[in-house]
Specification:
The chain is built from three helices and no strands. It is mainly α and 142 residues long. This is Poly(Hydroxyalkanoate) granule-associated protein. It comes from Algimonas porphyrae.
């Protein structure tokens, strides 16, 4: 009879152990489920926050881009002015720097001289009267 009592207790103990083991397993799975749900909730929060953060960063980027383009235009205009001023200075300093007004002056002077040359050559090309001198006529007669 001692054996019968022991086997009943062991069967009950085994059932309780199996039940406790099952409950522990379910608690373990429940713990993972809870961790997953919380992680999913945080991930959704981060997605929403990152979307807002992304939009904020895009707006800041657009502002910086506009400022950069404006600064670039200003810098380009200043650089262009500086180059033009430098070119004018160089043209005025260098004798053959391509000063347009000096070239025009010289071309006008050359044209005026060509007109004078043409006028003088017309006078030189006019027929000359032959003058007979006595020495030439005497020589022919003799």
């Amino acid at each position: 009879m001692a054996k019968a009592k022991t086997s009943k207790k062991t069967k009950t103990a085994k059932k309780a152990d199996v039940s406790n083991l099952r409950k522990a397993s379910l608690a373990y799975v429940g713990l993972y489920g809870l961790a997953y749900e919380r992680a999913q909730f945080r991930a959704d929060q981060l997605k929403a926050a990152s979307g807002e953060l992304f939009e904020t960063l895009v707006k800041k980027g657009e502002k910086l881009e506009a400022q950069g383009l404006e600064l670039t235009k200003d810098t380009r205009a200043k650089a262009t002015d500086m180059v033009e001023n430098s070119m004018e200075t160089v043209k005025n300093v260098v004798p053959f720097g391509g000063r347009d007004n000096r070239v025009e002056e010289l071309e006008a002077e050359v044209a005026a001289l060509n007109k004078k040359i043409a006028a003088l050559s017309k006078k030189a090309a006019a027929p000359r009267k032959t003058v007979k001198t006595e020495t030439t006529t005497e020589k022919k007669a003799a």
